[in-house]
Structures are given as structure tokens and as C-alpha cells.
Amino acid sequence: MANTASAKKAVRVIAHKTAVNKAKRTRMRSFIRTTEEAIASGDQKIAAEALKAAQPVIMKAVTSGILKMNTASRKVSRLAARVKGLSA
Fold it and tell me: What is the pLDDT of residues 9-27, one digit of tens each?
């Protein structure tokens, strides 16, 4: 339990940052899920549009500290490869 005023404030700040980060992570995962569902449907046009919408959200997660750069790049790359594979 926090005793000092600064410790109490730190608890409040951490709780707020946790809530914000959780919302951003959930949003990112929703975009990824939407893209994966579009890939599963087999329609390349819809999948490409979903990827185009998901890519900036994934990269913004890097600037927020939700993901590391390599992780985000890997996720985008794998999704793009799967979308590209639909045309073949």
C-alpha cells in the first residue's frame, strides 16, 4: 500500500497508463484479427484493404511501446505475405 503522496500518485499514473496501453493493444489485435479473417475468406481485395488499415495501427503500437519494432515488422510482413499468397 502506498504511503507517501508521490507513491499514491504513481499508483494512479500507472493505472491510467495500463488502461491506455491495454486499449491500444486490444485495438491492434482487433485489426490483426480482421485481417486474418479477411485472409481466411479468400478475397484478396478485402484482405489487402484490411492489411492497409492494420499496418499503421501496428506501427503506432511501436511508438507507444506496446511492441518492439522487429515484432511489428514481422507481424506486418507475415500478414502481407499471406495476403499476397491469395493471388497465386
Answer: 999 999 999 999 999 999 9
